[in-house]
Amino acid sequence: MQAISVQQPWAFAIARGGKTVSNQSLPTAYRGPLLIHASMRVDLTACDSPLVRAAGWDPHDPLATIGAVIALADLDDVCSSGVLDSACGCGPWARPEAHHWRLGSVRALPRPIVALGRADPWVPMPALVAEVRAMFSAAAAPDRCP
């Protein structure tokens, strides 16, 4: 499993608002589970973006936090044609001149998990991965009220 740190409100838009592309400076050969970490940096100009507003941006939502893992996605593909051609077809979230990491099966965590991130893609510690898995297992378990 790998992880990426994404500035808010973009991380929120991935977790809650259907943002299916993460714009990255480099491509990757990795495909598979990808933790979405909300970095300690906030793109204040993006908070008023029509795309972010359409994604339901709410600074009071727990997933609007910073410095925490907030979602799990699958990195399905990487489109590098955006670097050469601004009309690559990756949708409104895709920024020209970026590699478009295509995210599928995005699942917001029931609650954020405080963690340190990194500027580059990173491998999360086993304890963090175990906590994410336990969280999803607990959320999937049926309620047992006596």
Describe this structure in words.
- The chain has about 150 residues and is an alpha+beta fold.
- It has a single domain (about 1-140), classed as Archaeosine Trna-guanine Transglycosylase, Chain: A, domain 4.
- Helices cover about 20% and strands about 35% of the residues.
- The protein has a 5-stranded mixed sheet with strand order 1-3-4-5-2.
- It is globular, with a radius of gyration of 15 Å.
- The N and C termini lie far apart (about 35 Å).
> What is the name of the CATH superfamily?
Hypothetical protein
The percent of residues in helical segments reads 10-25%
Tell me the span between the first and last alpha carbons. Answer: 37 Å
At CATH level 3, the topology is: Archaeosine Trna-guanine Transglycosylase, Chain: A, domain 4
Number of domains: 1
Total beta strands? 5
Estimated radius of gyration = 15 Å
Sum up the overall morphology in one term.
Answer: globular
What structural class do the secondary elements suggest?
alpha+beta
Q: How many helix segments?
A: 4
CATH architecture: Roll
CATH class: Mainly Beta
| Rounded average pLDDT | 92
One letter per element, helices H and strands E, the order comes to EHEEHEHEH
Strand order of the biggest β-sheet:
1-3-4-5-2
Q: Could you tell me the strand content as a percent range?
A: 25-35%
Largest sheet: 5 strands, mixed
Unreliably modeled segments: none
